[in-house]
Amino acid sequence: MVKGTSPQWTISPPPHRPHWPEAAAPQVLSGLGRRDPVIYASDLAGAGAKERLVRRLLASLPGQETSGAGQSAPGTVSLELTALGQPRLFLAAQPGPAVSFSQAADCLWAALTPTGQVGVDAAMPAEFEPDYPMARVFRPAELDWARPLSGGDTASAAALLWALKEAAVKALGVGFHFLDPLAVEVGSPRPWQGWVRVLVKAGRILPAWARPEAGGWIAIARYY
Question: 140 in helix, strand or coil?
């Protein structure tokens, strides 16, 4: 993204909004970096869910203007993947804000920001059964601070840490293609905006935030 004044994104006509109650309203996460906020939301997973979420998030950006009526015209929003799997958003064939997605069970999460890069990840304790190779993924010091935030449950602590690590490598745009999970270190937890803010070391330091969600964890990381 180009640094400086944040661009104003316009969609015409306005986005279609789903009717089911599971579609959560977009939420703003301010302070995860020096510039614009991160906006995030969830929806039921399925056909067209990514595009619906992107339109809802774009419509929630500060200064967003919409016009017209009805559903969004096909092709207004398009998504592509880099060679390493990072999503790229295009609006009317022009590069749009940074975006990231994560699915857990039947829920799809999306996070979007006008400046820098963003990563979002959702993780559930069920993914970390007793035979999961914890020592290959998490440092003892990480589990030590994550367990108290997870009611002493190791699987929940692992889900918290994994969501934060995954969000960070998504924000970097490399996933775990070039980074081993143990090389991504999560620390310096402190209370912030309803739950916990941390610093993630992954060759550089990224701010990240997490909160409990539907028995698991949702995490967002930011990179400039």
Answer: helix
Q: Using DSSP, state whether 186 is helix, strand or coil.
A: strand
Task: List domains and CATH numbers for the chain.
Answer: 10-115 (no CATH), 122-223 (3.90.470.20)
Alpha-carbon torsion 142, 205, 181, 217, what sign? positive
H helix count then E strand count, the chain = 3, 14
Among residues 39, 34, 29, which one has the least CA distance to residue 211? 29
| Long-range pairs for 190-196: beta carbons < 8 A, 24 or more residues apart | 192/31, 193/29, 193/30, 193/31, 196/149
Could you report the per-residue pLDDT of 101-139, keeping only the tens digit for each? 999 989 999 999 999 999 999 999 999 999 999 999 999
Q: Which two tokens stand for residue 109?
A: 């999460």
Phi, psi (deg, nearest 5) at residue 65: -120, 140
CB 82 within 8 A of CB 88: yes
Q: Which two tokens stand for residue 1?
A: 């993204």
Q: What is the pLDDT of residues 57-109, one digit of tens each?
A: 999 987 655 433 333 443 478 999 998 889 999 998 899 999 999 999 899 99
Say what the alpha-carbon torsion angle 10, 12, 18, 24 is, to the nearest 10 degrees: 10
